[in-house]
Each structure stands twice: as structure tokens, then as C-alpha cells.
Amino acid sequence: MPETLISSPFGILRLHEAGGAITALSWTNQLRQTPEPPTPLLTEAVSQLSAYFAGKLTRFDLPLDPKGGDLNQAVFRAMLDIPFGETRTYGEIARQLGTAAQPVGQACGANPIPIIIPCHRILSAQGLGGYSGSGGLETKIALLKLEGSFPFLL
User: Fold this and answer.
1) Global pTM?
2) What is the pLDDT along the chain (154 residues), one digit of tens a residue?
3) Rounded Cα gap, residues 21 and 42, in angstroms
4) Angle between helices 101-109 and 90-97 in degrees, nearest 10
5) Where in the chain do CATH 1.10.10.10 domains reside?
6) Which helix (H) or strand (E) holds 109?
7) Per CATH, is 70-153 categorized as 1.10.10.10?
8) Active site residue ranges
9) Given 60, 70, 93, 116, which residue has the most CB atoms within 10 angstroms?
């Protein structure tokens, strides 16, 4: 499975591709690039992520293939529909999908492509909720600040 690394404001990210789609984004401590040159898709993904971190991209345009069951897929699609700079609650997404908030939270935690599939834009009704990416809530807050979507944290 082709992969590449990208240095970001949130640490070193590893992007994975399979079948012509991005399948995973994870944090790593690895500092060296894999010996294979990145594929055109991974090169484009790095370019889009760099533009996002620089505040110049508000919507990713990449083929994605996140693994997960039907509910997870529905939650992933709902997250992708949340515009840059906006948030939703677990409950709002649950009502939209006709399910409970807890499975929505579980799907957010199972998101294999964080940042690109913006699980950081989902909040609890009483506050931040959780974040499964490296750095936990600190990273979630930083992503929300980057997007200007959590004004009282700015």
C-alpha cells in the first residue's frame, strides 16, 4: 500500500493510498520518507493538506475510501458535508441519520482519515467531546482554531 509522510503543525502525518483512494491518515514519529516516491494521488493529498494548514484550502477534493460499516460510512459522509469553519453536535448528526448520539461518537472515533474527514467539527452538546487523533483534545482545539470555528477558544 503506497504511503507518504507530511510534516504538519500537528506532527508528522502518514497518508495511505489503496485502489486509487486515500484510505488512512495517521500520526507517526517516523521522520524518514519511505523509499518509494509518492504516487500522484499522495502528492496531491500532501499539496491539499499543506494548503489547508496554510489557511488556503477549505474543502478537500480527494478520492477517499475509509473502511467501516454502513453507519460509519453515513457518519463519514455527514462529516464531509460540514462546511469549513462550522461545527455540528453528535446529536445533530444522530438526528440527521436517525440514530443515537453514542454511535455517532463511536464512528467519529473510528474515522481512519481524520482532518480530511473532519471529525474535529463534531462537538458534544456540552462542549468539545473527544478526539482520537494524536494530541487528543489539544489537536481538536487547534484544528477548530485553524478554521475559526470555535470562537470562544480563539
Assistant:
1) 0.92
2) 899 999 999 899 999 999 999 999 999 887 776 667 889 999 999 999 999 999 999 999 999 999 999 999 999 999 999 999 999 999 999 999 999 999 999 999 999 999 999 999 999 888 888 888 788 888 999 999 999 886 555 4
3) 9
4) 110
5) 70-153
6) helix 101-109
7) yes
8) 119
9) 93
